[in-house]
């Protein structure tokens, strides 16, 4: 997944080394080594340890926009993260923050344009903490930036309902 991210300009850690081995106790194994992205922290850690960052409106809106654009880029290129949670999003703690996706062992290419389940899953998992940490207006702003629209259309509203109900199943 990291190689795919790098090839398609999706911000992530630079892969330094990787390897995989055969079976051991019935399990195959693999290892990856990535380069550190300086001055970053995952969004979940910010929510838990530095909630004042999320109260800073300017920073919060900038990081939501940056994250929406990264996720849009990934999805439009036909890739699903499959574990897109706040803990797997690194952000820089600066005035103009950047977002990076990490930890994607079960990510995959989607080949059918109509395959929306993986996209809905990614967005629902991002919303898991967002619904606690952010206002509805912020979450809506994220979605509108993700979709590249100023106003919601009927199909957007239907998609939002699918996202909100996904984790209730």
Radius of gyration: 17 Å
Number of helices: 7
Structural class: alpha+beta
Largest sheet: 3 strands, antiparallel
Question: N-to-C terminal Cα separation, in Å?
Answer: 27 Å
Describe this structure as you would to a colleague:
With 169 residues, this protein is of the alpha+beta class. It is built from 7 helices and 7 strands; from the N terminus they run αβββαααββββααα. It has a 3-stranded antiparallel β-sheet with strand order 3-5-6. A two-stranded antiparallel ribbon has the order 1-2. Strands 4-7 form a two-stranded antiparallel sheet. Strand 5 and strand 6 (99-101) form a beta hairpin. Helix 4 runs parallel beside helix 6 and helix 5 (117-133) crosses helix 7 (154-166). The protein is globular. The two termini are 27 Å apart. The model has no long low-confidence stretch (mean pLDDT 89).
List keywords for this structure.
7 strands, two-stranded antiparallel sheet, 19% strand, 169 residues, alpha+beta, 3-stranded antiparallel β-sheet, 7 helices
């Amino acid at each position: 997944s990291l190689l795919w991210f790098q090839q398609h300009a999706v911000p992530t850690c630079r892969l330094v080394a990787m390897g995989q081995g055969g079976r051991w106790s019935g399990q195959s194994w693999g290892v990856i080594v990535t380069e550190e992205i300086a001055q970053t922290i995952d969004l979940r850690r910010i929510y838990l340890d530095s909630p004042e960052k999320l109260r800073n409106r300017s920073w919060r809106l900038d990081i939501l926009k940056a994250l929406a654009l990264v996720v849009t880029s990934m999805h439009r290129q036909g890739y699903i993260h499959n574990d897109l949670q706040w803990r797997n999003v690194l952000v820089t703690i600066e005035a103009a923050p950047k977002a990076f996706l990490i930890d994607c062992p079960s990510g995959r290419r989607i080949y059918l344009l109509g395959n929306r389940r993986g996209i809905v899953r990614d967005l629902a998992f991002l919303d898991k903490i967002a619904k606690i940490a952010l206002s509805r207006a912020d979450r809506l702003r994220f979605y509108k930036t993700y979709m590249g629209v100023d106003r919601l259309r009927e199909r957007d509203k239907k998609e939002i309902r699918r996202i909100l109900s996904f984790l209730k199943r």
